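Problem 3 from the worked examples.
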Amino acid sequence: MSQTNTVLSTEEVIRARHSVRQYKRNVTIPDQTLNEILELAAAAPSSWNLQQWRFLVIREQEQKDRVKAIAYGQQQVSDASVVVVILGDLEAQITAKEIYGEKLAAGQITQEIHDNMVNQVSGAYQIAQVARDEANKNAGLAAMQLMLAAKAKGYDTVAMGGFDAAQLIQALNIPSRFIPVMLIPIGEAAVPARATDRLSLDKLVINESF
């Protein structure tokens, strides 16, 4: 861990995570630690286990500064140690063939199960809105898990939706298969995060039915 050797419980990590928008510059996250964060993020659940996310990792200062301009000049993009572009997969039916094909080859599933799953996914992904919804939904699960993993390792994050998606796609050569869902800067806070107010459960929880 970078900032502390204290191991936090899951509850402590969740309660300690807040959005940070001011980061210390020139802080390097070790490769092993960053990979551990990404591996934990990639353990998120997903529809059909298709893992409809990709992590475009930006560490070079020149590249971060390019993305800063695309993100309307938000300084945290330049100052953070790493910026992860969370991408959603619009063509995850391709992954379905890979995943279930490997399971079939390993004898873990029957041909019937393989065909049913691949056909089910392929049918769903013929509908553009379903593909987009699944890309956003599942990428969001991985993004949240990434932020919690980073906090567990002693780093702060912020989820950003403020950027020009078309410019980002062009600047980073993102294939048409993927859509940018959000940016997540990761680093050490220069200024402590300020906790935000939360709605009480009586305003958030509906029991049984409206």
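Problem 4, a separate protein:
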Amino acid sequence: MAAKVPSSNLKATPHIKSRYNLLKRQFHAINEMINHNNGFGWNNVEKCINTSKDVFDDWVKRHLTTIGLRNREFPHLDDLMFVWGKDRATGAGAETLTDAVEEINLCDEETTNLSVK
């Protein structure tokens, strides 16, 4: 930042990191609402969440990170899906730490058995 705009006195670390964290928090909140399928929809033309005020207000009571996202334009959803779309594991396909350790151990055993033969 200092090289491109020397008179700005902006530092990349707090400003860019803060914006990154905000986008990530908003992305996950919007993505969770869309995947919840309980009165929420995505308007691809206006790039915002579609829902009634009652449904949204009820959701906000349980998910405070969604405050202010109703009918608010979020044009980056498609692009950020590539960045953070697989960031959270949920549902039947989610792998726990125990599952990961067991899989690593199985791979180690297979490697050991192949090298012994």
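Solution to problem 4. The CA atoms of residues 2 and 8 lie 7 Å apart. The beta strands are 41-43, 48-50.
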